[in-house]
Write the structure tokens for this entry.
Amino acid sequence: MEFPAALFPSYFSAGPPREEGGPAPVAGWGEHGQVLEGGPGRRQAQPAFVPRRGATGERWEAADAAAVPVLLPSAGCWIPSPAPQDILYRSGLFKKLRAGKSGATLDFARQLGHFFVDHPEDAFGSLGRLLHKNFYLGNSKLKRPARNSTIRMTALVEDIDRLEARRGCPRQHLASRLRWFSHLCRDWLFEVPLGLLADCLHEELMLQWSNLLFDDSLTGGALAWLPLGDGGTPVGRLVYPGGQAMNHLFFQDVVLEELPHTRGSPAQFELSGRVRQVAAARVDGEDFIGVRSDYHCGVWRVPGRTGAAPTPLQVIHTDVPASCLTVSPHLPGELSVCTQSGTVYLWNVETGLQQLRYGPQTMFFRDHSPWRWSDFTAHPRVLSCADRTGLQCLDARAPKKCHFDLFKVGEEAGCQQGERVVLPMYLGRAHPSQYLVTTQFSMYVLDERLPLVPILKWAHMMKAPPLFAHVMPGNPGRSHKVLLGASRTQELLLLQYRGKRSTIWVRAPLCLHPSLLIAGTSCCWRLCSRAGFWGVSSGGSQSACQLAGTPQKLHSIAGCLQHLPTQLPHRHHLLQQRLTAPATGMAATLQEDGPHKSMLVFQLSEAGDVFCQRLTHKATQPSAPPSRDEATTAPGSSPLFKAPPSPVVLSPAAALQYRRWLRAFHRACREPPRHTWPPSLSQRRLFTRRDLEGPEGPTTLQRQMRQRLRQAMQEGGRIQCWEPLALQPPPLPQTLEPAGGLDPLSARLTAAWAGDWEQWWEERTSFSVAQKQRALRERRRQQKRARGRRSLSASFTSSLTYQSELSELSDAGPPLLSPGRPHVFSQEGSPPAGSPPVCSPPTSPVPDEALLSSQSLRCRGIPKERRKTLRDYLSVWAEGPPEPPEPPGSQASQLCIPSSQSQPCIPSSQTQLSSASQPRHKRPRMGF
Amino acid sequence: SSNEHKLNFKKSKEACLSYIQDALLQKQWERAAEFLTCYVESLEKDYSREHIGPSEMIWRIGTEILWHHSHSSMKEFNCFMEQMKTLGVKRYLKVCLEHVFHLLCNGQIDEAYQNLSLAESWRFGEQTAIQDKEMKLIQAYRGLLDYCSWSKQKNILLEHGEDVFSDLAVEQEMHGYFRKAAVNLKEIIKIPGVWDVFVKCYVDLLEFYGDHNEARQVLNEYAYNSKFPANPNAHVYLYQFLKRQGESKKSLISALKILHDIVPSHELMIDFNTMLQKSKKRKKRRLGLEVIFAALDYAGWKENAKAWSCLARQVKQIVISEKHLDWIKQEWNSRKDWWPAFHFSRYLAKRNWQEDKSLSYEKALVAGILLGKGCKYFKHVSHQGCKAQLKRFRMLKKFVNRHNPVYLRISG
């Protein structure tokens, strides 16, 4: 490849960047930059100048009004990653206080509070268990003997609530009780020392926040397009991550007709981590796909013909998260890997890893970012290494000795202060020695043969830093197309640049220009190429790099929202959330079908959606550059700008595709059941399978009952009442011992292990008659309730049929613990041996309300998170259509069980009972 | 409430700007122009202390729109530019330069020249470093245009060489242009930078007037001053100058040697290799082999038939003479683990054969010698060649078979 005979003039100086600056919204417009004499070898030419920017480019127009989905949304809901409002402090008062100041405040206290509420076991487990006898959450006054060892927490909780209400109020000393309490127990109450916990939480919050501001793990993008060179119908293969955790890799054949559509089912690989980057390169007719997740990198080989299956070749594991994986365009099975520890490896599938560089220091000046990048160069043994401060090229054969600086954030490239490298990319497909470097402000094209001095620089004006780039080489004489993509804002920008002497730089013969004639210049500057311009005329076919045409914004995924049919508000919200998810990848391909050229651009979002848009090439008549004298461009005659702007209405095919996608989307996002149906709920969303597993075999009681029933049937008699059996004082050891029959010691030990030792002891020693009777009464009631229900699902589902009552109460703060819950848990399978098994209420000495309280639930070993989940779920249920609240793990199947509707309802008296006996809003705080 | 008003104004300004930006990025010039007329109001209360103020924005956006708007004319453009020049003192020179660039790109050389002269005479207080640079550029471009005029006059002279009387005035004028151009061009090329065009013009002037020493000095400075970037063109110009001057082979070789050191993939490496191969000195021929091997390392040279034939010729020579096989061995050592996959894969054998028979011939020769007759590339090409009954491929097969032991010595 020849070096341009002359480069655009530019100053060169070394040192740190001097120009102050920042994001400039329009910095890329209206500048030619520099000019250069061009047009060698033409006869009868006067010196013609070409600008560095502003030359005419090819004209590409969007074929449709918006991007169109390629894949249908996969089943299962997508969980949006945290948004700024989730972790930022938002309070009216605070906003006022901080008005004018820049910077965000992380809501640390709220997050810590969330942690305490969501993970009380982890926060206060052991002491909470020890102390729960001594803390009372009821409203009634404590009786004398109890008062000695128990304190009433209700007042404290009220104080906390009040504190919440006047957050920011300077008169906080009023909450002396709280201060007293926190002073008393700050040191010992917490399972993890508070300082340590706070440090960890703060660290995590900072991490989340910085990821929200700029997530560099996505650099490079996780979408690749592999063209299949078969001829005939244009087919290609899309490589993208999917699944709820984005840990599945799909290879999907796609046919490029008017709208691209999938063909066959995709090849699928399950990986052990979220796919961050998919890189691809074609060597010797085969595609090599590098896939990067945080701690694993893998490489696949895909033969370049249709139907050939992708084969995984090798996987490496890194101790530190990998930040880069690129595939060599020169040698098969060669990749480069960078980790956040600053190590750069050359990875050959056959020979393994070769470390090229090590060290956490950045190259040119100090920068805290651990991000590293590496790519290949024109020389297969020379790799470029990048950090935020610049790029260096290393020779893999002698990495310590042979290296040179390719790009520096500094005065050399005319950078601004604060500018950092965001994405370097080898442009080998367009030009073997050119390199693209993007920063948050500008894009640079570099030539390895002239390091440090960008041969092209342009302020790209994107709102978010471009994390993705794709180059589509133009044939000789045509411009190369570069696509830049941002993540958070989903921006896509199409640029064109020209590196070769183009044949389409056609001008009207300038010597006929009237203005020149008027100006009195002789019409022909006959330049004898032999005598003058020796360099220019002998310069060969290579010209300096210039930007062609204007940058063009392409459709983003979010842009299609306005073309979708009108939705119900909540659906609209879901849709909006889905469509505005950050982009995580970009791919593009040029398709030439005779004279029709088109470009297909794919964009992948964090939700796993792949959208596609087609741009068609409009041939421009060889016309003069647009802004010329009136003489050449008669008003309104320019063919360039009279064409209608890009379509504003969707094509029918696209509309159909949208409808299909929407249908699948709503199906996937599981709408609430129609209101005509009685509300029902699946318990599977709340409990894992293990929770739901019934006890092994029927319990003793069930067995007895069955036996009696069978006996009665055989005898043809009837059972007068079930009571007699139940009236027997519950044999304590039996209830405590499951089928295996534990000796007292092991029973005690198991009880202690489960944290219920105290209770066990109490039951064992002081088992008063009154308590026993009360327990019996309770159990009788239980049995009544339980009649006719044998399965947990039934009991639970039916417990929700009193939805209306519940929702009436739901305005009283957090939802109540549902009265149905004791049943749920009483039947829950395989509790620890020491905890009371099925139908154990008699063993419980606490009265009804205590039974329903959180303490009693917890003493049965019910994890608190479950309760919270249930509570949250019910509250959502009571308030309106549920959003998809479930973590991916528990989504096996969420269909409601229709049979549950036939189950008997809980008598409404129960709800009354519970609402009467249970203090409202008993949301447990601080793990009590 | 004035504060609120200020905030609202700022907000609507930003909104307007984002509309303009959107329109520009979608090439809706008419729409952008309409918004811009509203945005002009932002000049009224310019409280911003941002990097780019509203006046600069208007200049940039307006320029961009006028470049592309279907109804814009050069007259309007000039008018707009004149207004923009008065809008900001700090930006005056920059706007002037851009205006000149636009005029130049549209072939209005004389207008451009006038504008440059005007800008050059502009004075306003103390100049900042950036303004200083811009002023130098303005002068340099003026020098360039002077050079163009000079060159035009020169051509007139050369064409009408016999007509002595009318030439005197032309010659006078030409010398005038020379002086003006030389002064300005000389200035800019002293400052570190990439000044290919200016250097070339200046050297051309000097050469015409026979000041070869000065020209040589300028080119040496441009190529070897360490403050300048490592511009391959600087070395190319020097080499071409030396060649024009009929300098000795030795100085040409030393110039190219430096170019080889900084850009081993430069296209002049073929000339360099040819020159070195012809040399009688062993060291030079050895260097020639190194040069061609190094050039072929680069992806851009992969399918360069000329380079492959250079390598094939030299390798063949060495093999036939059976002297200096160690040269090949040494070069091959650092490449034997990746050249086979990079150059001599089966896929490439097929493709090269289909696309360029002579390239595949040269490559097959090299592959046969370096990798032996069992090499995939050689086997495929020679087989295809023999099948197509091409004589040179049969010869090639014979040659490689005869010299197969060489391969063992190279790789051993």
Chain A has 26 helices and 35 strands. Chain A has a mean pLDDT of 73.
